[in-house]
Design a protein that fits this description.
Helix 10 links the parallel strand 10 and strand 11. The strands form 2 sheets. Strands 8-17-16-15-14-13-12-9-10-11 form a 10-stranded mixed beta sheet, with helices on both faces. An 8-stranded mixed beta sheet has the order 3-2-1-4-5-6-7-18. Helix 9 packs across helix 17, helix 17 packs across helix 18 and helix 18 crosses helix 19. It is about 40% helix and about 15% strand. By secondary structure, the chain is α/β, with parallel strands linked by helices.
């Protein structure tokens, strides 16, 4: 799903009306209806709804929400932060459609702060709807709008933001400054803006509701997208009845060393759990028993080893035969930074024509030698965390984190590869410079081994989808984060460990399938 700027969103609305014949009044009606539907389904027991409206189109959406909630039998108290004579266009039209006579259930309209009991009446409702300022606003907030935001933040009721929490700058990709309304949920429309993805505007859901704009009208100059279940559902659908394991690829994991055998085992089993038909783990001979003991489903192959218990350069002699007919290679989990092992890794990456997923110390083998990484001859997927990315680029970690999107985009483009830069909002960049952002995942995943799990899932999805490699990577990244979210639901953030993600993968697959068919996209 494309991420668009606020200016592009205005152009999308204009084009939708002028070129595709959808009246702007219909867009507003659809927007407000979506918010009301979400409010009624999420807070069905609420009896009173307070709707706080500005004088612009965001307020106009709020008028529709208020009308729809009232029609559904809810008591509504609407606070208009302006004189009605200031309303224009579609907002004025929808204000005129509000109930004007005594009604059951009650419908009350308060204007400004002139009525002393209005604030108490509105802000003590069971649920608040923030329709003050939309994505066209630029900070700072002043005057009566700032006062209203302060009252929202002081209230105890849950808050649903219409389009974006009031006071937020929709085009900011980092932390917001100034007064911003809190939100327990955000309902935005057509396509997300940067702040919806990067702004940490809510701990609850952000829903993207379609309101009538055709796909052809949704254009963006950012070359930036968010991964949603709809983009990846085709890769997690039901399998044919006549399936056999040979149809789903054979992953070869190359990794492990004395003291780090578990990393290779986790990557191998994650590839199986992601759906690979077969998985073999090639590791130093002395740790094979440990790896085989983790999961009986894994096949193993011994590699010659150094005195330190890591893969030796002499292992190259047998490697060609071991790698024969393997569909992707996953190199790096637990492999160590031993100089001889690093040389082994570099030779495989430079010589192999098989798709490769490179992670952990497999990446560190290219510190100071990143110019040797080239994915143009065959698919090459790198999955660095910020520290590993810093070693590849020669930048410090802070510089990586300040400009994650552009760092990933430039590296992927320069080296002709797929780059998965892990972290909060993992970034996936493809060789043409297009970037996708993953909305799943949580702080509980900041624990040893989760990167090895990702490596296995990526390899497993590549094995099954050799002709849809970039989609396979997107799918793996999304599933990995979603499995982490499911594990957090079960265990909390503090107690989560890497293998909990593997156990949660089956439910992650199921959720992707069901959410892809949902009316709205939720991130």
């Amino acid at each position: 799903m494309k991420i668009v700027t606020s200016a592009e969103m205005r152009e999308i609305d204009r084009v939708t009306s002028e070129r595709y014949g959808v009246p702007s009044l219909a867009l507003m009606e659809n927007a407000g209806s979506a918010v009301a539907q979400f409010a009624l389904s999420s807070y069905s027991d609420a009896k009173t709804f307070g709707v706080i409206c500005g004088k612009g189109n965001n307020g106009g959406d709020g008028f529709v929400v208020a009308r729809k909630l009232h029609q559904a039998g809810k008591e509504v108290r609407l606070q208009l932060l302006a004189d009605p004579v200031e309303l224009r266009g579609d907002a004025a039209t929808n204000f005129a459609r509000l109930p004007t006579k005594p009604a059951a259930p009650p419908f009350a309209v308060f204007k400004g702060w002139g009525e002393p009991k209005s604030a108490q009446a509105v802000f003590t409702c069971d649920v608040l709807i923030d329709a003050i300022l939309g994505t066209g606003f630029r900070p700072p907030v002043m005057g009566i709008y700032a006062e209203a935001i302060a009252k929202i933040n002081a209230a105890s009721a849950p808050v649903i933001a219409v389009d974006i929490p009031s006071g937020a700058d929709a085009d900011v990709m980092g932390e917001q400054t100034g007064a911003v309304a809190r939100a327990d949920a955000i309902i935005t429309f057509t396509a997300p803006r940067p702040a919806h993805i990067f702004g940490n505007l809510t701990f609850g859901p952000t829903v993207i509701a379609p309101i009538g704009s055709p796909d052809e009208a949704i254009q963006s100059s950012l070359n930036l997208n968010v991964i949603t279940p709809r983009e990846i559902a085709a890769l997690v659908g039901p399998r044919p009845r006549d399936s056999n394991k040979g149809m789903y690829g054979h992953v070869l994991v190359i990794g492990g060393s004395v003291g780090k055998a578990g990393a290779a085992a986790m990557a191998g089993f994650s590839a199986l759990r992601a759906g690979a038909g077969l998985v073999t783990v090639a590791a130093p001979r002395s740790v094979l028993g440990v790896i085989a003991g983790y999961h009986p489903e894994l096949m193993t192959e011994p590699l010659e080893e150094t005195a330190a218990g890591t893969v030796a350069i002499h292992a190259l002699k047998a490697f060609e035969q071991i790698a024969d007919r393997k569909t992707p290679l996953a190199i790096g989990p637990g492999i160590s930074r031993h100089p001889e092992t690093a040389e082994f890794v570099r030779k495989i990456v430079l010589q192999s024509t098989t798709p490769i997923v490179l992670d952990a110390d497999g990446l560190n083998a290219f510190e100071g030698k990143a110019h040797e990484l080239d994915g143009r001859a065959r698919t090459l997927v790198l999955t660095p965390h910020p520290g590993e990315m810093a070693r590849l680029t020669g930048l410090n970690t802070s510089a990586i984190q300040r400009d994650r999107i552009n760092v990933a985009r430039s590296f992927a483009r320069d080296h002709g590869l797929i780059l998965v830069l892990k972290g909060d909002r993992t970034v996936v960049a493809q060789p043409d410079g297009e970037v996708w952002v993953n909305p799943t995942g949580n702080p509980g995943m900041a624990t040893g081994g989760t990167g090895d799990i990702l490596t296995g899932i990526v390899a497993g999805m590549l094995a099954q989808n050799p002709r849809r490699e970039f989609e396979a990577v997107l799918t793996a990244v999304y599933l990995h984060g979603l499995a982490g979210d499911i594990a957090r639901e079960r265990l909390g953030e503090h107690s989560l460990v890497a293998t909990d993600l593997v156990n949660a993968l089956p439910e992650a697959f199921s959720r992707v399938r069901s959410e892809a068919a949902a009316q709205w996209v939720t991130i």
